[in-house]
Amino acid sequence: GDRILEGPSKWAGREFPFVMVFGEQVYIDGKCCWWGLPRFAKDAQRSYNVSRTAIAEAIAMAPQAKWWASAEQAKGNTDIWATAHKRNYPFLLYNADPKAPGPPQRMGGADVPVALIQESQMASEEIKAVTGIFDASLGMDGNEKSGRAIYARQQQGEIATFNYQDNMSKGIRRTWELLLDLIPEVYDTERELRILGNDGAEDYVAVNQVVMDYETGRMVRINDLATGKYDVTITIGPNFATQRQEAAETYGELGRQFPELMSIAGDLVFKSMDLPYAEDIAERLRAILPPQIQQMIDQDTEMPPEVQQAMQQAEQAMAQVQEHAQLVQAAAQELEGEKGEAAAAKAEIRTELANLRAAKAEFDAHVAKEMAALVQKEAGLTGRAADLTAKGAELKQQAVERGQEDMGSLVNTAQALQTVASIDEVLA
Question: pTM (2 decimals)?
Fold first, then answer.
């Protein structure tokens, strides 16, 4: 820690990447004073350490009990009696002493003072009182029986130390503010990111993706992380596993009070339980739900892959329709300089584009009507074939003379009919 190992390196963000997480913070006479959770528990901890050390020393001295014997009783056996507290002799010899009848007496070791035991217990309780973390928060059993009562006892420690959790949430919020400032500078290319939900489920999303905009004909970037302004919100609470456990307890209690709940929401109740085969049981319960509920669930269910593929194909078809429409518009723009019938054809094309669906219906009806009329006239036209042949030659000559004038109109009409046929095929 006495030298710079590498750098300096340029920070990609615009803000300094420093996150301060205070414990308790108080301003006294304009001076900021802050401390952590163990600060005021030090005195109680010292007292606990001293009393526990004294108790340990007293217990350690207990095996050092002494033998009390007269000089006559220990005469000739002092070497053995001197090591009796260290070695386990099968028997000890002594000399009978009329002045001290009986064998030598073993005196008990040092007793642990009751005051030391009481002091260590009080110091332990003082540590809990100062920190606000009691036995229930440490997982020790109490007199509570219901899960709700046990949870309420465990929450006492969290309430007492809520200010530290709040300061931690502020530190987390500051961290994400730095990340929001940094992400657009780091994630500046097209990529897929892995997203984790509250329940740990994975999902993938593409960012900075470049696609074609068919309306403008330009390449645009979607999900651009450098576009827009974002904000952060922090929520402090139990994780998903704890929420799931609490939900299972609550649903179980509701199931006992309202048995009909299982018949309409039994699949959701089992989904909230961390039990073997809970998902399988939930699926079977869902299969026997009332038809009204199953219909409601089906409406909220995502489309299957086949339907999604069909929707994509439909979108591609609509894109082709737009391309055809753009081609027709381009052709109309090229004919703006022409006069006469070309201008009329251009107006007709615009009308056809604006009333495409109505024109299609009218066109189908007109074709059916004309076909019926032609079939009816076909019998009467057989005898006039020769006359019509001659008349056709004359009309052909006239058509040649008028061909140059009508050429532009015919081409435009053919293009419009071809566009209508293409759109009909796409819509089919």
Answer: 0.44
